[in-house]
Design a protein that fits this description.
It is a single chain. Helices cover 38% and strands 15% of the residues. It is built from 11 helices and 13 strands. Helix 4 links the parallel strand 3 and strand 4. Helix 2 runs parallel beside helix 7, helix 3 packs parallel to helix 4 and helix 8 runs parallel beside helix 11. The radius of gyration is 21 Å and the shape is globular. The two termini are 27 Å apart. 50% of the residues are buried. The protein binds pyridoxal-5'-phosphate. The site of pyridoxal-5'-phosphate has 13 residues, from helix 3.
Length: 382
């Protein structure tokens, strides 16, 4: 079989650690029952799977009370719960011009119930100035929603500083960690994070269909879906206690178990080691691409200021054609277009054609980076 080179880890990581495959297989074969529902032995072990995964997530992000970790089907659901469950008519939110649609669309739809927001403009490299956030805050501002790192340029935002501004002003901070969870150290206490939305299927090495939202103890969110929770069946509304309040319906037990195992893998390896590897690959990739005359690289172009996400274009070539040839002629999996973040492309000047995005991961190698660079070089001369 042709060897495929996967450089689309910003969409979802591939492959997963062996332990994750084994764990999911084990759960599917041995753990029946519905967590938090039946009292039989298999349901209790399903419950254990979910509880253990909650504890693992809490440990990785320094969350004191793991019951404040709510499992979701992806980052999008986590962000929807955080945004729609928190903001009320008359409230104002501050966000940036580099956000994913998972932030911009929920904020847009809330305009219908008189929730307003301001988009702070970032630089063409995707850099957000905390002072600009400060200036956008109004007396009715209740929430700052910011991506920890852009999924288009990889640019890392100064979340801790923004959190300090939020604390000073008595505003809550919701961080979209889809591109950083498991790949950059995050400590919800030190980083002043009130809500943290994260994918399970990206840097945490879990399965697609998983994610979570952390909610600080002083925040009570309105659920965006209602249904069975196992406990409190006599109530005709959702219970107040977490995580049940925000976890209606049967959980994705195998997916959550896999996610917990992915987090355990990260805890064993160490986020710093993972980050070091990704910085080394990104540095090599950026330098290699910049050596090709026709290449335009977007974003900071500095591996220490960005995640392993590198967007580029070839002068005079359609990014869709470049991506097609990367796959069809070289077996390289890249993502092309607007990456569900049209505002980010408007900010960096690549709307509407978009860019080719190469995103390496922990299991990629320097040799693969060199192969990708040589493939781009060949395409540039076609
Ligand atoms: N936010 C950012 C910055 C992302 O990169 C993504 C996905 O790529 C999302 C949100 C949505 O994540 P999910 O696909 O887990 O819903």
């Amino acid at each position: 079989m042709e060897k495929l080179i996967y450089f689309d880890n910003a969409a979802t990581t591939f492959p997963k650690p062996e332990e994750v495959y084994r764990k999911v297989d084990h759960i599917l074969r041995n753990v029946g029952g519905n967590p938090g529902r039946s009292g039989h032995r298999m349901a209790l072990s399903a419950n254990r799977v979910v509880l253990d995964a909650r504890d693992s997530v809490a440990r990785l992000f320094n969350i004191e009370d793991s019951s404040r970790v709510v499992f979701t089907s992806n980052t999008t659901e986590a962000l929807n719960i955080g945004i729609k469950g928190f903001l009320k008519p008359g409230d104002h939110a501050v966000t940036s011009s580099m956000e994913h649609s998972a932030v911009t669309r929920p904020l847009k739809v809330l305009e219908r119930i008189n929730v307003r927001h301001t988009k702070v403009k970032c630089s063409p490299e995707g850099v957000l100035e905390p002072e600009d956030i400060k200036r956008a805050i109004r007396p009715d501002t209740k929430l700052i929603v910011i991506t920890h790192a852009s999924n288009v340029t990889g640019t890392i935002n100064p979340v801790r500083e923004i959190g300090e501004i939020a604390r000073e002003k008595g505003i809550k901070l919701l961080v979209d960690a889809a591109q950083t969870g498991g790949m950059l150290p995050i400590d919800v206490e030190k980083d002043n994070i009130d809500m943290l939305a994260c994918a399970g299927h990206k840097g945490l090495f879990g399965l697609q269909g998983t994610g979570f939202l952390y909610i600080a103890p002083d925040i009570q969110l309105e659920p965006i879906k209602e249904g069975g929770t196992g406990g409190n069946p006599e109530m005709d509304v959702m219970p107040n206690n977490l995580p049940e309040r925000l976890e209606a319906g049967t959980m994705n037990t195998p997916g959550i178990g896999g996610l917990g195992e992915g987090v355990e893998f990260i805890l064993r390896e160490g986020v710093e080691k993972i980050r070091r590897h990704e910085v080394a690959l990104t540095d090599r990739l950026i330098k290699g691409l910049l050596d090709i005359k026709q290449v335009i690289v977007y974003g900071p172009k500095d591996a220490n200021k960005q995640m392993a996400v590198v967007s580029f274009n070839l002068k005079g070539k359609d990014p869709s054609d470049v991506s097609f040839v990367l796959d069809s002629s070289f077996g390289i999996m890249a993502r092309v277009g607007l990456h569900c973040a049209p505002d980010a492309h408007r900010t960096i000047g690549t709307f509407p054609q978009g860019t080719v995005r190469l995103s390496s991961g922990y299991f990629n190698t320097a040799e693969e980076v060199d192969f990708v660079v040589s493939a781009v070089k060949r395409i540039s001369s076609l």
